[in-house]
Amino acid sequence: MTNYAPLASLLRPESLKDFFGQEHLVGKDKPLRILIENRQLFSMIFWGPPGVGKTTLARIIAHESGAEIYELSAVSAGKDDIRKIIANKSPLIKKILFLDEIHRFNKAQQDFLLPYVETGELTLIGATTENPSFEIISPLLSRCRIFTLKELDEKDLNKIIDVSIKKLSTKVDKKSRDWLVNMANGDARQLITIMDNAFTLYGKINIDSLTQALQNSFIRFDKKGEEYYNVISAFIKSMRASNIDAALYYLARMVDAGQDPLYIARRMVVFASEDIGIANSSAILVANAVFRLVKRSGLLSVKKTSLTALFTCANLPKIAVLMMPI
Hints:
By secondary structure, the protein is α/β, with parallel strands linked by helices. The protein folds into three domains: 22-148, Rossmann fold; 154-214, Helicase, Ruva Protein, domain 3, CATH 1.10.8.60; 226-321, Zinc Finger, Delta Prime, domain 3, CATH 1.20.272.10. It contains 18 helices and five strands. It has helices spanning 7-10, 23-26, 31-37, 54-65, 79-87, 107-119, 132-135, 138-141, 154-168, 174-184, 188-202, 207-214, 226-240, 244-256, 261-276, 281-297, 307-310, 316-321, and strands spanning 44-47, 68-73, 95-100, 123-128, 145-148. The chain has a five-stranded parallel sheet, with helices on both faces. Helix 5 links the parallel strand 2 and strand 3. Helix 9 (154-168) runs parallel beside helix 11 (188-202) and helix 13 packs antiparallel against helix 14 (244-256). The longest helix has 17 residues, at 281-297.
């Protein structure tokens, strides 16, 4: 057990031929592929959700360009760590500072990087899950190129499953494969970790071993981060599109993640007023009633058998019913 390495670490690609996803950046004639093939270096920021290849791409760039890479996390690193890297004189070898969670650096720490990035003494590759325009100071942004990484699609996730089962010398049936793709939520690291845990504990990968190893499903929903606004936006758009199932899914996702029920109820009142309006005058009444009930009594579940009698108008009341205390 002392020599155990996580499967995600063992499978991390070392070159672009083994890298899956981000075709808009690493596909033929795309910017990062050209950069790597021409061994070019410039400071950049990778912006994207977890598990889509930000760290891996930084390492591939360093490896292919013959540069020395220093990896720091902005959560724990400070100015002294950067000073040590600068003090390590190696004029013939380019230095790449890969700074994970760069948005955690405060303004003074980001200012400290400026002269080294400006002169090229350090090539900065920052990684962030937050919008760089809001979290990174303008002078540093102007010296870096921003590349947006996307969640991995079903095709890429299936390729990763194929590589994983080959490494584990096991098999995965279609039902388990579909479950993995859905649970991964576009995150390669999450996908591999679930498989690794199931195989380590049970020696096989099927629905039973996956659910037992996982126990409680975990859903990405970072407090006040990008995903926070993505989910509430998806909830509103689902109601706007009259897609009840999708709206219920995003509602459940928020509640399960600990979102304040009053916040959800308040957004429903806004939706009833701005999006439905006079098209259904009872919608605002139902939304307001839900808001008052949630504020007064809290969020309680409602039995499915009682829903039909309570559905009174279009889709908003159907969503609202699930928020009504019994």
